[in-house]
Hints:
Layout: E1 2-3, H1 5-13, E2 21-25, H2 29-44, E3 54-58, H3 59-64, H4 67-74, E4 84-90, H5 95-104, E5 111-116, H6 124-131, E6 135-139, H7 147-156, H8 163-175, H9 178-191, H10 201-207, H11 214-224, H12 231-241, H13 245-264, H14 276-286, H15 288-306, H16 314-330
Parallel strand pairs: 1-6, 2-5, 2-6, 3-4, 4-5
Amino acid sequence: MKLSPRDANAYFKKPDRDKTGLLIFGSDAMRVALKRQEFLKALLGPQAEEEMRLTRIPAAELRREPAMLLDAIKAIGFFPGPRAAFVEDANDNIAKILLDTLKDWQQGDAQIVVTGGDLKKTSKVRKAFEAHPNAYAAAIYDNPPDRGEIERMLADAKLTPDNDAMASLVDLARAIDPGDFRQTLEKLSLYKLNDSSPLGADDIAACAPTSTEADVDDILHVVAEARARDIGPVMSKLQAQGVTAVTLTIMATRHFRTLYRIAANPGAPVYGVRDRDRVTRQSNSWGAAKLETALGVLTDTDLTLRSAGQNAPAIALVERAFIRLAMLGAQKNR
């Protein structure tokens, strides 16, 4: 059976121990791994590996020894509690093994937990789990965690944010990898140890990672400071380094949201940047009205990049948007 993203998030938190198994797949290996960790912890508890209630089987090994999975789900452990056999990096090369094991599964056997990459709709593995009456398949998309998911992660970390901190975390989740975001929450949990006050934006500023690349910071400052002539050379350097158009759009959106937050709420803390005074000056130069327009330009650019009918070079679209923003920033506020 298929799980929608909303249903999947709920199921990962509270799995059914009587199910045959679960397939988690997606193009982002880190996101898939984090969801798998969350599910196995909820299903088996934190001591499953120490108590030998979890068997890990790489797909390559299973292909060489097809009986491994069936042996794993039938084995009786020394410790009481639910059991699982986890198959990593599955693809159609082991589809027959997985299908045969699903057929042989009986109540009381260990659950079959499988992770895979971007499995197509025609994948035999995906079809098997989606069609199985007692198993689930969950696709993990590249979307950043939404507010509800962030709230659940904060609750797990025993962190209570104020409104400014929550807004900062939502923006941060859009700008960095999911693994980095989870590590940031762990760092915040340690940072707030024995501190009962709500999590604030200042706390996030102290723990959040800075921009991933100094060169990406360079283009953001060039655009925000209306230096249109410098955009071309910096973009050429970034393109040579392999920086993608989507990454540039995400980082620019994050930067201009930070500027907008400062403009809309003077005195608000600035997090995740190398030079707080510099971005404050940029925000003051732009003003809230022009920053709203800038965010609209970036949103339109992002939608164009994701459009199925888009044929123009992606990096050229972003460069054109950056030039437009720089010209907008050069206009005097009225």
